[in-house]
Each structure stands twice: as C-alpha cells, then as structure tokens.
Amino acid sequence: MSVAVLLVILLGLSAFYLGHARAVRTVGGAHSIRRLHSLPAYYGWYLALWVILPAGAVLLLWGLFQETALTAWITASLPAQQQALPAAELGLLINDIRNLAAGNITAGQVTPEIQAAAAQLQQWQQTATLARIAVILALTSLIGSLAWRAIQPEMRARNRVEWIVQALLILSSSIAVLTTVGIVLSVLFESIRFFHKIPITDFLFGLDWSPQTALRSDQVGASGAFGAIPLLAGTLLISGVAMLVAVPIGLMSAIYLSEYAHPRLRQVAKPVLEVLAGVPTVVYGFFAALTLAPLLRGLGESLGLEVASESALAAGLVMGVMIIPFISSLSDDVISAVPQALRDASFGLGATRSETIRQVVLPAALPGIMGGVLLAVSRAIGETMIVVMAAGLSAKLTANPLEAVTTVTVQIVTLLVGDQEFDSAKTLAAFALGLLLFVITLALNIVALKIVRRYREHYE
Amino acid sequence: MNERQQAVYATVQASLRRRYARERRFRALGLGAVILGLSFVLLLFTDIISKGYSAFVQTYITLPVYFDPQVIDPNEQRDPAQLARADYRQLVRAPLRALFPEVKNRRAKRQLYRLLSTGATYQIRAMVLADPGLIGQTRQIALLADDDVDMITKGHVDQATAEERFGADYRSWLQQLTRQGRLHTRWNIEFFTAGDSREPELAGIGGAMAGSFYTLLVTLLLSCPIGIAAAIYLEEFAPRNRFTDLIEVNINNLAAVPSIVFGLLGLAIFINLFGLPRSAPLVGGLVLTLMTLPTVIIASRAALQAVPPSIREAALGIGASRTQTVFHHVLPLALPGMLTGTIIGMAQALGETAPLLMIGMVAFIVDVPNSPLDPSSALPVQVYLWADSPERAFVERTSAAIMVLLAFLISMNACAVALRRRFERRW
Fold it and tell me: Where does residue A120 rank: exposed (0-12), middle (13-18), buried (19+ CB within 10 A)?
C-alpha cells in the first residue's frame, strides 16, 4: 500500500519539476518565458496532474477491488465439494485461508487443501502488489509522455489546468449525490430481497415483531414475525415523551432569552444550553440507563406504580433533554426574524410583553417553529444510542410510558451487531427497517424545510 | 370623578392587575425553562464527574516480593524464553500467605489471592524480563489490587455490603493491610495507555483513543479537502441549473439523515461490496466522512459567502482568471471559517457511535491498533461497551472515559471558537 502511494507522490513531484523545466527549455531559457502562454508552473501542474490522477485512480480502484477479486478466485480454486458449502461456512473457510496467508492463527483445523489455498493466496497477493506498481508505472509513462509532448510554448496550460481543477471540484460536490444514491441503493437492494421472503404488507401492517427465525423447522415458538407496527408505536411513544419535554422547555427558554433576558444572561445561557447539543448521545444513553432509570423505578415504587427498568419514560425524558437546544436555537432564529415593527405596533396598542409575544410574535413565528419541531421529531425518530442503551428489546404495543418498548433503531442495531448471515430474513429485516427510517425522516425533513422556506419568503 | 368613571376605573385597574399578574407568570415560566435547561447541564456533568473522577487513581497493595530463583529460573540459564514462561503467580501469592498465616483452608486462600489483580502477575513478569538481576532479591513492590479492593478502598462499595458479599475475613484483611500502610492509591496512568480488558482494573482507553484517532484522521483527510472543494464549486463556479439544485437538495437532506443509516450504507457498500475489513478505523473514517461532509460543506459555503465581492472584483479587474481569483484571493480569506466548520464536524464525528456499531467497531479488542486497518474500537463505542458491564468498577471507568471524551469535545469546540474570534473579520 504505502510503497505504491509513495511512488505516486514521487512521480507527481518529479512530473511537476520536469514539466516546469521543459516549458522553460522550449522557449530557450528563463529570460524568455514571456513567450510561454502560461506561467511555467502551470506546465508543471499540467504534467503532474496527468501523472497523479490516473495513477491515483488505479490505486483507489485496485484497493477497493483487490480483496473481493482475490476472494472470488480463491473460492473458485477450492474443490467443488467445499464450494458447495452454505455461504456462512464458506465464509469461515475463506477467513481461515486469509488468516493462514497472513500468518495468523486459524479458527478451524488446517487441511492440506486450505494450506494450498493459503499459499496460493499469498502468492497472488505478492503478484498483485507487484502488478499494481507495474500498471502504475506503465500508465504514468504512457500518459506522461503524451502530456510531455504536448508541452509547447503556445499550449494553453493554464486553461487546461483550470479545466481539470473544475472537473475535480464538480466531482467533489457530486459526492453528496453519490452518498444519497449509495444509501438508497444499499438499503433498497437488501430490502427487496427481504420483501421476497416476507410480503411487504406483512411488514408494514403486521402487529407482531419477533425476528428470531427457527434454526430447525420443528422448533417451537421461533416462527419469526416481521410486523413493524409495534416498533413504530414504540418509536412514536418515546419520541412523544421527548417532545413533551423538549418543546415547552425549548420554546419557553427561546422566548425568554430573546424577548426578556438581559443581554449578559443571554450571552452566558445560550452557549451553555448549546452544550447539551454537543454532548455525544452515548453519554445521554449512559445517564438514562444508569442514573435516571433506577431513579424513576424507585420513584415509581414509592408511589405504588410499576415502572419497568427500561421504561420508555427514562429514554424519552433524556432524549427530550438532548433535543432542547435544537428546538430553542431554531425557535430563537425565527423569533428574532419577526420584524420589530410588529412588536412596536402591539406595544403601541397597550399590550403587555407577554400579550405581544402570545398574540403577535408567536403566530408570526409559528410556521418556522413548526418546521423546527418537525425537524426535531425526525431527529428523535432517528436517534439510536439513547434508546439502544435505555429502552428495551421487547416489541410491545402499548401507550403506557412506564413499560418497556422497543424502537426501529434499537432493532436495527440488535439485528446487525454480532453474527450476520446475509441471506437470512433476520439480517435483511434490518435493512428494511433502515429503509423505513430513511423514508420517514426524509419525508419529515422535506415537509419541515418546505414550511420553513414558505415562512421565510413571507417576510423578505 | 363620577360613579360611572369610578366603575370603569376599577374595572380597568382589576383587569390591569390580572394582565400584569399574567405577565409575571409568563416571564417566570420562561425563566424557569431556562433554569431547568441549565440545571440539566449541571446535573449531567456532576453525575458523570462524581461517578468517574475516582477512576483516575488506582489502588495498589505494597508487598515484599521475593524473586525466588527456584520459581523463575531453576537452572540458572537466564534464558528470556524460560523467564517469560515461569509461574509468577507463586511470587505474588507467597507474601500474601506470609502476611496472613492464619488463612489455612483452600477456599479462604483462594479468596485471599483474589485481593490482587491478575495484572500483578504480569507486573512482576515485566519487571523480571526488563531486569533479570532482580532474581534472588526481595523488593517492596506496589502490586495492582483487584477491582473489588479498589471499589471498597474508594468507598464506592460500603463496608456492610462488602462484608455481606465477601465475608468478614476479607474485611479484616483489608483493615490489616490499611493499618500496615500497604494499601494506597496512585495516579492511574495505565487507564490512558491500556487496551480493553474483561478485568476492570486492567481496562484502559488507550486502544479506544488510538482507534478514534485513526478514524478521525481518515475523516479529516477526506472530508476537509472534499468538503472545501464542493463548497468552492457550489459557491464560486456553479451555474444555476438542475444539477446544482440537485446537489444542494441532497446536501441539505443528508445533514438530517439519521446517523445509523450511514452505518447501513457502510456495511452494505464498504464492507460487503468492496470487501474492506470489518472493525477497521478506515471504514469508520469513510462512513463518518460521508456523515460530516454536509456540515463541512455548509460551514465552508458560509465562510466563502462572508468574503466580500469587492475582493473578487479587484482580482478579476487586474486580469486574474476565475480560478486564480478563488485560489489566490478568496480561499485564503475564507480558510479560517472553513477550518472552524471542519473542527465542529470533527467534534461531531468523534462523538458518533451508531454508525460504528454497524460496521463492527464494537468487537472486544484488547490490542492497541497501530494502523487504520487494524481492528479497533473507538472512544464512544468503548463507553457503550463498558456501560453494559455489570461490575461496579466499570461504571467508574465508563464515567471516566466519558470525561475524557467530553474533554476532547470541549477543547475542540473551544479551538473552533478561538479560531473564529482570532480570524473573524468584519468587512
């Protein structure tokens, strides 16, 4: 890896130097560089870019596909009887071969075939390393010599370099699009495979969630049911509790800080509240699971209520605290955006501050606040660590926040952490849940942004 | 004032009183909300700190250890391989037996030995391997105590509970050790250097910190140039057309996609499609790059927007090309703002856990990683892993790990604020 990277860097540096030198030489020395179309450095850049970019692309693609290709070849070279093994066992076998080739300890026993395959793999890996360097050298010398010949005094080196730079900039900005495409494709493909096994209507409208599929067909109570309704209900319950905490506190503190507070208090209180947004969610999860949940349980016991140790209440309360700064800073923005003239008019009619806020400012800011709240809801639905650590695993259809419920994100984590078989409905279900989550949050965001945007146009 | 006027006056007075009371209530409600919010911050931090501060010291038991040549090196070869294989348990157990000669039966003895951590044995072995001249000597050595001893010494487990769980003997041993001044605590440097372990007293965040470091390194190396390049294109070059609109919509939506979905992307594409290694900081860095990219792009665009157009016009006016204008004049002025955004994005990436769970960075890994391709954990994932452990000592370690994590985050954000203050320019 590092040898090839170093090689590309060295090639690039020398190409810059060579291009620069050749440009100067073609016009007969440094005193007459005015005859060049561009500054000599542009000729250097021109050659260097034509060397680095193809070599870098080869390096990247090679790095991405080498292991996949080698695995495929090794699998093909195994005896037919082993190739026929189920995917999971074959995966273990390949792992053993890889470990053996890398000189590590293997999990299974080492048979002569595995030994041979490992030796073969080792050889291929060495060949691949050499081949990569050879390909890079060949490619750079070919393209480099073409670019080298192109360096002439009248060549428009600056324009060409700028054109390449433009292309790189466009490429960088399309990564955002590629990411979205990647997300959609990766969850969609696995989800479609999942819907081949489980009908989509069962998934969307099923009232029962128990993803433990049977290992043997005669096992009892392990039928596997994939109804997402209990998960959605649990998610909504926890998000609802969170919103009940976050919206009043966040909104009221935004109102107080922007309309009443002394500037000095505002200067201190705002950043301190923002700290809540910067705290990692795993910390909130720890706090909810180890401090708040036992506290609520004890409190419930003294009141004669039964509170589950992984209650929706604990997770929801802490999630609400996490979202407070989100709501307060968004509402603060929209409240400050309400024109002062509206307030002055209201004061002029003799309204008190609170009457002005309630009857003039808030109605004017309402669409923006609504947008903010919707964004916060989408945040709460997609939140993972708090619920993984503080909410339960049992999928129950209940509206009682004192009971344990589970959420979409918790199930994704439980299904995917640990052993995975990519052909079982259990693993694929995680991707279907991911798709569901993505669609819900995307819809909420689009609606929220639309509301916020429409509101903004209103006052500009 | 006639009667009618007086009645109106009284009504207005009453209504004013009511309205002012309502005004005061509303105001008090607002103040209450702010105070509540601030007290949550206070509560969170005091809870974590009060639970975690004691993990920065560790209990040791000082015992006279005799480096018995019979045990370590019976045939006097001083062969390192032989020295590494010797049974050092005997060396740390002998002084305990000598100290408490009244302990006779096997069960009690086993409990006595459990005062020391298994780490004490490794400690002795490391000392012998570093200096074989110790063999045959007796030294007073501070040996690592077990996590139960540690918890009782620090007062996290009270005497009554301890007696109930470990018996009266255990308590009297500890009391005797304390009386003899053998039990003491010292600065726990191992916590920052060691990898994970099943034994709380041996577990450290060194491995997790290294994993986070490599992950962030990959994230920084990718998201900084890509994010800045994307921002430059969108802000300085992009024509208004469908394609740029599409990019903008995408960036805004990606900023709000749940982080766990990025984990699914990493699992499906980087690991399953491209066959990159599981649990590797490289994959973690790639996933976090995609996740932080919107933050970096949005911040960088704001920084570019803040550069006044007169700078661009001046450069263009004296004949610079558009690319030259941007790279020679606009970019240097916008760079501090872009760096601020990048640091904030990095802080966000440092605290992120969920996507790392998806790509397998949750495995139990003892070794400290040495490259972005070694399997490793990350600081927030370590917090998650330890939070699941039942031992009381792990609660303390988890809180301490959170304190370290928060310290990093706060200093990164302070850096960003300082950078902004230092370089912010009003045009």
Answer: middle
Do A245 and A348 belong to one domain?
Answer: yes
Question: Residues 230-249, chain A: which have Cβ within 8 Å of B?
Answer: 248-249
| One domain for residues A344 and A442 | yes
Please check whether residues A148 and A272 belong to one and the same domain: no
CB-nearest to B264 from A186, A261, A286 is A186
Per residue in B343-383, pLDDT (tens digit) is: 999 999 999 999 999 888 888 888 888 888 888 899 999 99
CA distance A218 to chain B (A): 32
Please, are residues A425 and B424 in contact by the beta-carbon 8 Å criterion?
A: no
| B253/A172 CB distance under 8 A | no
In a domain, A387, yes or no: yes
The CATH number given to whatever domain includes residue A394 is: 1.10.3720.10
**Domain spans of chain B?**
54-188, 206-423
Instruction: Provide the residue range defining the domain that includes A59.
Output: 2-155
Is the CB of B57 inside 8 Å of chain A's CB atoms? no
Assess whether A111 and A252 both reside in one domain.
no
The architecture CATH gives domain B206-423? Orthogonal Bundle (1.10)
A230/A322 same-domain check = yes
Model pLDDT, residue A458: 58
Residues B257, A382: C-beta atoms closer than 8 Å: yes
Q: Determine the distance in angstroms separating the CA of A220 from the nearest CA of chain B, rounded to an integer.
A: 30
List, in sequence order, every residue forming a beta bridge with B145; answer none if it has no partner: B116
Percent pLDDT > 70 in chain B is 100
A203 in a structural domain? no
Residue A396 and residue A248 share a domain: yes
Taking an 8 Å cut-off on Cβ atoms, the answer to whether A384 and B259 are in contact is yes
Which of B30, B230, B380 minimises the CB distance to A282?
Answer: B380
Do the beta carbons of residue A342 and residue A360 sit within 8 Å? yes
| B contact test, residue of A70, A94, A172, A412 with most B CBs within 10 A | A172
Q: Are B399 and B156 in contact (CB under 8 A)?
A: no
**Across the interface, which of A261, A280, A354 has its CB nearest the CB of B351?**
A280
Contacts of B40 in chain A (CB under 8 A): 276, 321, 324
Q: Which residue of B has its CA nearest to A67?
A: B275
Which residues have C-beta within 8 Å of that of residue A400, sequence separation ≥ 6? none
Q: Which of A155, A175, A210 is the C-terminal boundary of a domain?
A: A155
Looking at the structure, do residues A123 and A260 belong to the same domain, yes or no?
no
Residue B205 DSSP label? S
Q: What is the ipTM of this complex?
A: 0.90
| Cβ pairs A/B, distance under 8 A | 263
Residue ranges in chain A modelled with pLDDT below 50: 220-221, 460
Q: Do A127 and A244 have their domain in common?
A: no
| Overall domain count for chain A | 2
List pLDDT tens digits, range B104-159: 888 888 888 888 888 888 888 888 888 888 888 888 888 888 888 888 888 887 77
> What's the rounded Cα separation, in Å, for the pair A359 and A351?
9
The tokens for B90 are 């005997």
Q: Would residue A65 count as lying in a domain?
A: yes
Write out the two tokens for B171. 């308590």
Q: Choose the final residue of a domain: A155, A172, A195.
A: A155
- Please check the confidence at residue B420 and state whether its pLDDT lies above 70: yes
pLDDT confidence of residue A214 = 52
User: Quick one: tokens of A436?
Assistant: 């569901």
Chosen from B16, B23, B44 to mutate, greatest number of chain A CBs within 10 A:
B44
Give the model's pLDDT for residue A108.
65
H-assigned helices in B53-130: 69-72, 80-85, 89-99, 106-113, 118-130
What the block records as the tokens of B128 is 């012998």
Interface contact B19-A352, CB threshold 8 A: yes
